[in-house]
Amino acid sequence: MRIQEIQTLLETKDGIDVILAEYQSCFDEISSVMEDLKNDNLATEPALMSAQTRLTGLYGSLIVVSKVCQAAKINIEAKEFVRLNEEYETNNPGEKPLSAAKLERMTTIEIGEWRTVRNIFEGYTLAAEKAIITCQSNLKNMKTERIFENANPERI
Fold it and tell me: How far apart (Å, rounded) are the C-alpha atoms in residues 137 and 53?
């Protein structure tokens, strides 16, 4: 999905569901690798290298969307803040203005879906990043163990 398409979809609440559905397979694959790591099912170098490569590709796909979601959340939050304030002032002429804290709380309620989608993408991006690091560490440990196992005891 192109960045412009993502930005356009994020302008509406309905678009959020479309984006989540589009990236569900990425989320599922990251969850699958995380489950394999949790259950120690990636016990060979080829399995770890494959998982690391897949995770790197998934991370690359999700990080951009995560950043676009973050920007959309901030932009919509600002627009909602202004809209709610103007709406209150229009409907309550001459009344005491709403406090910034109350407006912020009202805005928070209005942008919940955007905050959720941002958090979903951020969470899976972070999970992929941590899993990549774990795969790298496990590969390094396997290599070190192999070197020590194959070392000539007379040279040590």
Answer: 14
Q: Domain span at residue 30?
A: 3-149
pTM of the model: 0.85
Domain total in the chain: 1
In whole angstroms, what is the distance from residue 57 CA to residue 135 CA? Answer: 14
Please say whether the beta carbons of 10 and 19 come within 8 A: yes
Of the candidates 72, 65, 62, 79, which has an alpha carbon nearest to the alpha carbon of residue 115? 72
Q: Distances in Å between the alpha carbon of 116 and those of 54, 75, 129, 155?
A: 25, 15, 20, 58
Residue type, 40: D
- Tokens 């103007």 locate to 86
pLDDT tens-digit readout, 15-70: 999 999 999 999 999 999 999 999 999 999 999 999 999 999 999 999 999 999 99
DSSP one-letter string for 85-151: HHHHHHHSTTSPPPPHHHHHHHHHHHTHHHHHHHHHHHHHHHHHHHHHHHHHHHHHHHHHHHHHHHS
120 within domain boundaries: yes
